[in-house]
Amino acid sequence: MSSEERPLAQHWVATAPGGPDSWEFVEERLAAPGHGEVTIRVHASGVNPADAKHVASGGSGLEFPVPIGYEVSGVLSAVGPDTRIGSGAAVIGDEVIAFRVRGGYATAVTVPAEKVFAKPSTLTHPEAANLLLVGTTAAEMLAVTGAAPGETVLLHGASGAVGVSVLQQARLRGIRVIGTASTDRFDEVRRFGGEPVRYGPGLADRVREVSAGPVAAALDAVGTDEAVDVSLELVPDRRRIVTIAALGRAEAEGIQAIAGSMPASARFRDEVRSELIALAQNGDLVVPVARTFPLDEARQAHRVLATGHPGGKLALIP
Questions:
Q1: What would the pLDDT profile of 256-301 be if each residue is shown by its tens digit?
Q2: In a 3-state reduction of DSSP, which class is residue 253?
Q3: Cα separation of 288 and 51, whole Å?
Q4: What SS3 class is residue 281?
Q5: Integer Cα distance of 79 and 164 in angstroms
Q6: How far from chain centre, in Å, is Cα 117?
Q7: pLDDT 10s digits, 96-109
Q8: Long-range contact pairs involving 180-183 (C-beta distance under 8 Å, separation at least 24)
Q9: Which of 85, 159, 182, 209 is exposed most, by the fewest CB atoms within 10 A?
Q10: How many other CB atoms sit within 10 Å of the CB of residue 314?
């Protein structure tokens, strides 16, 4: 296929370090899939803080321009020769999701087939496009702290996207979760099986009152000093405290930190994808979506995300 025959696709790129306001929405010819690759016509792109953080500082050996977006849901529009996707055989027209890809903020994208899986039929495209980044993060938080059935754990940021996934996965395993949230989000925490407590001064005492016993582990999805300090106060074993946001405190205090850029985290998250997709297909794992935006309004979506209280996941729709 000549370059003139390849379809055009619009997508967001960062041309230099900086925030979303510096990104550019461009149109380019789409690369045809080779062996081990597929092309996805995107129906929804998941919006995550990591999408912006990845390119904001320009570190980690990035070479600009950098395509934006890690997670999509859509339909296969082309399949490379002798190629199977991560979940098995696939044909043009199949609904799929892709995770840990580059350039997901797009109308179409060509990606490694191993990162592509059959879309759970129980989820809409905006929901499916937001399943795996938060889901694998939540699964890893529970795994590295060794949270076990019958134990009580403390979750900071229980009503956020990662927190909601933690609540659902913990409930399925018989793990009791006390979750911090603002009072107007208590019903959301209860909806997914958590016991809410208000964050702020006096948090440790409120957790003790609700727990009425030992707190075995703490999972920090917010990164505040309060979250770390209260975790240290309530959990005797620092190896059973994990954060996804307070990396500096983790190093200083000897608690665990995880991130998708860390090799061990990347391996775990790749291994757990199929399990989470199966949970979603069975109706055991849902993804609350607060709002969708047209693809060309990616900057506005990130402004809403930056408020810290979108009330659910956000998605971009081409």
A1: 999 999 999 999 999 999 999 999 999 999 999 999 999 999 999 9
A2: helix
A3: 19
A4: helix
A5: 34
A6: 16
A7: 999 999 999 999 99
A8: 180/154, 180/155, 180/156, 180/222, 180/227, 181/157, 182/309
A9: 209
A10: 25
Nearest to 245 by CA among 19, 20, 53: 53
3-class secondary structure, 25: strand
- In sequence order, which residues have a C-beta less than 8 Å from that of residue 134 and are 6 or more positions away? 48, 161, 162, 164, 165, 287, 313
**Cα 233 → chain centroid:** 28
Distance, in Å, from the CA atom of 101 to the CA atom of 46, rounded to the nearest integer, reads 11
Nearest CA-CA partner of 131 in 317, 288, 318: 288
| Residue 5 CB neighbours (<10 A) | 8
Strand ranges for the chain from DSSP E: 8-14, 24-29, 37-47, 66-67, 71-79, 95-99, 108-112, 116-118, 152-156, 176-181, 195-198, 217-220, 241-243, 256-257, 289-294, 313-317
Which among 125, 147, 126 is positioned nearest to 237, based on CA atoms? 147
Report residue 8: phi and psi, to 5°: -85, 145
Amino acid letter, 12: W
Burial 222-261 (b: 16+ CB within 10 A, else e): bbbebbbebbbebbeeeebbbbbbbeebbeeeebbbbbbe
Distance CA 1, CA 5 (A): 6
* pTM for the full predicted model: 0.95
The CA radius of gyration of the chain, in Å to the nearest whole number, is: 20
